[in-house]
Specification:
The structure is a single chain. The protein is an alpha/beta fold and 309 residues long. Helices cover 33% and strands 21% of the residues. It has helices spanning 49-73, 131-138, 161-171, 187-197, 202-215, 231-242, 261-278, 289-292; strands at residues 87-100, 103-116, 120-124, 146-151, 154-155, 172-175, 249-253, 281-285, 297-302, 305-308. The strands form 2 sheets. It has a 6-stranded mixed sheet. Strands 2-1-4-5 form a 4-stranded antiparallel sheet, with helices on one face. It starts with 48 loop residues before the first helix and ends with a strand.
């Protein structure tokens, strides 16, 4: 079963005005998840670690073989189309806390959320409210203290680092407030890097990166290194990099927070256009309500919970 199998948009369960979805307390979630959902797979806690490593190694070898075949026959890898309204991610009763000496600091408290393909949601709230923490957990960069992050009825938040990394690299894009570009690489090389790491030939990766950068208005800056780019150009390169592996989900943490208002509006408009053209699901944290109002839904992080704004 494909974790991105198409579904009909559940109109009856979604408050389209707020993008907030109350969850059914009786809803069953299967916690025994393996990324590749084989019919005969055992529950994750019963798997032999050596067998799991062998399976992951076999997947990587198959991926490398496919990449070599694409290179030999010049086959462009395809991204599976996702129908608008497909539920991409379900968050249920998610909590995150940190210990401070003998005390516990509760950041997120029983967060419930659904993210669908074709919708862009804004995440607002004051600094320190937990926006970045939530995005890092949803992007599989961090783990919750309790609760579930679910794809196709499977909890993915508790998997091994290798399984989470594989899922994140193949299906999730992330944009930070700071661009985090490698200074010694050109714009083209920075954007192509995710696919080169995935086993695609450098030429094919750079061809695709050039198309993405052209779409973001940087066709004339391909060979420029980050230090020679403006702040807005640097962030557009970071946006292109986040989309390089054709993710199904995109998370952005204040992607225009370091830019002046005029540049911020320009970069944000480009970001929304490219996300909408791909039909993916996106959750974007911002302090700018003018930008938030351009998105399909606005969610507020308040007292550790997600509420309709």
């Amino acid at each position: 079963m494909d974790i991105f199998e198409k579904h009909t948009f559940p109109q009856s369960k979604v408050d389209r005005r707020s993008y907030y979805t109350p969850l059914n307390e009786d809803e069953d979630i299967d916690e025994d998840f393996m990324f590749d959902d084989l019919d005969d797979i055992e529950p994750i806690d019963e798997l032999d670690s050596d067998a799991l490593d062998d399976e992951i190694l076999a997947e990587e070898e198959a991926k490398a073989s496919a990449a070599a075949e694409r290179q030999e026959y010049n086959i462009e890898p395809l991204s599976p189309a996702i129908e608008e309204g497909t539920e991409l991610l379900l968050v249920k009763n998610l909590c995150k806390e940190y210990k401070q000496g003998q005390n516990k600091l509760q950041i997120l408290n029983n967060v419930d959320l659904r993210i669908y393909a074709g919708e862009i949601a804004a995440l607002v709230g004051p600094s320190g409210s937990g926006k970045s923490t939530l995005l890092h957990i949803l992007g599989l960069l961090d783990s919750p203290t309790s609760g579930q992050v679910v794809m196709e009825g499977r909890d993915i938040s508790r998997q091994s680092d290798r399984a989470r990394t594989k899922l994140r690299n193949e299906h999730i894009g992330f944009i930070y407030q700071f661009h985090h570009l490698l200074p010694e690489f050109t714009a083209l090389e920075n954007v192509a890097l995710p696919q080169v790491i995935a086993g695609i030939s450098p030429k094919q990766a750079q061809d695709k990166a050039a198309v993405l950068l052209e779409q973001l208005g940087l066709g004339h800056r391909l060979t420029h290194r980050p230090a020679t780019l403006s702040g807005g150009e640097q962030q557009r390169v970071a946006i292109a990099r986040s989309l390089m592996n054709d993710p199904h989900l995109l998370f952005a943490d204040e992607p225009t927070g370091n830019l002046d208002p005029e540049t911020s509006a320009e970069v944000f408009e480009l970001l929304l256009d490219v996300v909408r053209s791909r039909g993916i699901g996106a959750l974007i944290a911002t302090h700018n309500l003018d930008l938030a109002n351009q998105m399909d839904r606005i969610l507020e992080v308040k007292s550790g919970r997600i509420l309709p704004y």
